[in-house]
Each structure stands twice: as structure tokens, then as C-alpha cells.
Design goal:
By secondary structure, the protein is an alpha+beta fold. The chain contains three helices and six strands, in the order αβββαββαβ. It has a three-stranded antiparallel beta sheet, with no helix packed on it. Bound molecules: zinc ion (2 copies). One zinc ion (ZN) binds at residues 26, 28-29, 31, 103, 105.
Length: 115
């Protein structure tokens, strides 16, 4: 195919940059988290996930705990992206992505003054 792509605009570049997964500290607990905008849903979602990869058992535990899990798609040219992990995608058995889960801040230690 030789169809010419339209020239990317500044807005396209900003959109692409927002989709790259980047390590950023969580503003609440300071933990290192992966943040990216995922373009897979009707409305783009801003995801903040723990960077630690999950094995299937850990993913089940995370989902039971009410956390969403995501595919981390690594791309040499496109950067890493966080992709929506739908049930068909999981059931399809072809997923070779790293699996990560939504970040949850750890419970803050309760500050008590012992008298
Ligand atoms: Zn996947
Ligand atoms: Zn946090």
C-alpha cells in the first residue's frame, strides 16, 4: 500500500506521548508507578499501575481484590503502552504481554499517640 498518511499534527504528537507508559511516583504514597493513557476504550483512560509484572495466580488475586489488570505492550519504536485487557483477549490465549495491575496505595499507618 502506498497511501500517504496525513501529516501528524502537534496534537497527534501530544496524544502519542501521553500513551507512552512512563514511571512516575504516585502523588499520594510516593511508590513508583507506571502511568499512561490507554486509547483502547471509547473514552481514553488514564491508567496508574504498579510496574511489577503479575503471574496468572497473582492476576487472579488482583482481580478478586477489585483491581483492573492491564497488558503492558512493549514497542521498540512506539514506546511501551498500557492496553485494555478484555476477557476475550485473556481467553484468546494469545496474549504474550506483561500483565500489570492498577496501583492501589498501601494503607497509611494510623498515627496514634500513645499516652
Ligand atoms: Zn495482552
Ligand atoms: Zn499510591
Amino acid at each position: 500500500m502506498t497511501a500517504q498518511r496525513p501529516r501528524p499534527t502537534a496534537a497527534d504528537h501530544a496524544q502519542a506521548a501521553a500513551e507512552h507508559a512512563q514511571l512516575r511516583p504516585c502523588p499520594r504514597c510516593g511508590a513508583q508507578t507506571l502511568v499512561a493513557r490507554t486509547p483502547d476504550r471509547v473514552a481514553a483512560l488514564d491508567v496508574r499501575a504498579d510496574p511489577a509484572p503479575l503471574d496468572p495466580a497473582a492476576e487472579i488475586l488482583a482481580r478478586l481484590a477489585g483491581r483492573l489488570t492491564w497488558c503492558l505492550a512493549r514497542g521498540e519504536h512506539t514506546g511501551d503502552r498500557i492496553r485494555w485487557r478484555g476477557t476475550e483477549h485473556i481467553a484468546g490465549g494469545r496474549c504474550t504481554h506483561t500483565v500489570i495491575a492498577d496501583h492501589r496505595c498501601p494503607p497509611q499507618p494510623i498515627q496514634e499517640t500513645l499516652l
